[in-house]
TrEMBL record:
Matches recorded under InterPro entries: HU-HIG (IPR041607), HU_DNA-bd_put (IPR005902), IHF-like_DNA-bd_dom_sf (IPR010992)
All copies of domain HU, residue ranges: 1-126
Pfam entry (one): HU-HIG
Keywords of this entry: DNA-binding
Zinc in keyword set: no
The protein's name: HU family DNA-binding protein
MF GO annotations: DNA binding
């Protein structure tokens, strides 16, 4: 198993680059979407819970996470990692000039746990290519 990537050409933003210079950069390619129900079914196959049990638990996990994140709490989720809220804003010249309307939409920030970090450390890569000979939209690695 390998992480699929393709190459995309973008403007060279390095100092001293010619105005029309372009470089190729790797970009991850998602090969498919795993639907929630399918993931729950896969998990149910590896334990004594049913798919419905797993869906119920995950529904309550999301409810709990939302509750704690709304209270500016960090939610530590075992080997999965941590979730927290991040807030940004436009700048103001002084604290007195700052208003709540300057706040941007909050973001949920995820920091991967140990197992996900280890997966990144040992990741293998495969270049994704589209077979142009047969005229189909499929691709391969």
């Amino acid at each position: 198993m390998a992480i699929s990537y393709t190459l995309v050409q973008r403007k060279d933003m390095s100092r001293g680059a010619l105005e029309d210079a372009k470089l190729y950069y790797a970009q991850a390619v998602s090969t498919r979407r795993v639907e929630f129900d399918d993931l729950c079914d896969e998990i149910a196959e590896t334990c004594t819970l049913t798919s419905a049990d797993i869906k119920a638990v995950l529904d309550r996990v999301i409810w709990g996470m939302v509750t704690h994140l709304k209270n500016s709490e960090i939610v530590q989720f075992g080997d999965l990692g941590n979730f927290r809220i991040a807030v940004g804003s436009a700048g103001s010249a002084s604290p007195e000039e700052f208003t709540a309307t300057m706040l941007r939409k909050p973001k949920v920030v995820f920091h991967p746990g140990k197992r996900l970090q280890e997966m990144r450390d040992v990741a293998k890569f495969a270049r994704f290519t589209v077979d142009k000979d047969d005229g189909t939209d499929g691709g391969g690695v």
